[in-house]
Amino acid sequence: MEVVKVENVTRTYKVGNTETQALRGVSLTIENGEFTALVGPSGSGKTTLLQLIGCLDQPTSGHVTINGKDVSTLNRNQRADMRRASIGFVFQFFALIPTLTAYENIEMPLLLAGVNGTERRNRVMELLDIVDLKDHAHHRPDQLSGGQQQRVAIVRALASKPALLLADEPTANLDTPNGKVVMETMVRLNKATGVTFVFATHDPRVISYARRVVTLRDGLIADGQVTPGA
Known about the structure:
Elements: E1 2-15, E2 18-31, E3 35-39, H1 46-53, E4 61-66, E5 69-70, H2 76-86, E6 87-90, H3 102-112, H4 117-130, H5 146-158, E7 164-168, H6 176-193, E8 196-201, H7 204-207, E9 212-217, E10 220-226
C-alpha cells in the first residue's frame, strides 16, 4: 500500500524579481514500511521534497497524496491536522524541550492527543526500552549525549504512532559513532513498528543504511531509485 504519492510536482520560490525552481516535475511513490533516503547535493531539491511530503509547504503545481489524501490544496490548519495525525518529524538539531526530561519529551505528543495516563506511561517506557534509554528516562537533554538526544527525538516522533516518519539530515550534528547508533536505531524501529521512514541526507555513511535511495539533482529525480541492499 502506498503511503506517499508525488505526481509531477514543481515548487518555485520567488524572491523579488528572481525565481528559483527547486523541483521541476518530480513523481515518486513510497510504499508502506519503506526505509528510503532522498539524496543529492545542496540545492538538489531533497529538503524541498521532504517538506512537501511533510505538509510543511505546498507545491506550485502537481499533487502530493499522503495515506490516500491529496494534501496539495489543504490550508494551513488542515495541513497541521494532517501532520499531527499521520506524520512524525526528526530534525538535525534534536528540537527537544530543554526543561523536560527524556520521558516528558516523549510523553508530550501523547498529552496533546489526550491519551490517558496509564497508556502514556506504557507507551513511553516501551519506546525508551527499544532505544536502550530506560535508565535515562528522567535525564534532561543537557544530561544526555547528542546521540542519546537524537534517539529520544526519534521515539518522540513515533509516540503517536504516525504512518510516516520524516528526518532531515538526522546525523548531521553527530560524530561517527553516535551517527552509527542513531541510524541503527532507526533501522530497528522501522522493522519493529512498520512505520515508513523517509530521510534526506548527503552523507554516504547514512545512505548505506537505506533500503531504497532516490537521487535528486537540479530539482529532478536523476537516477531513479536504487536498492543498495535490504
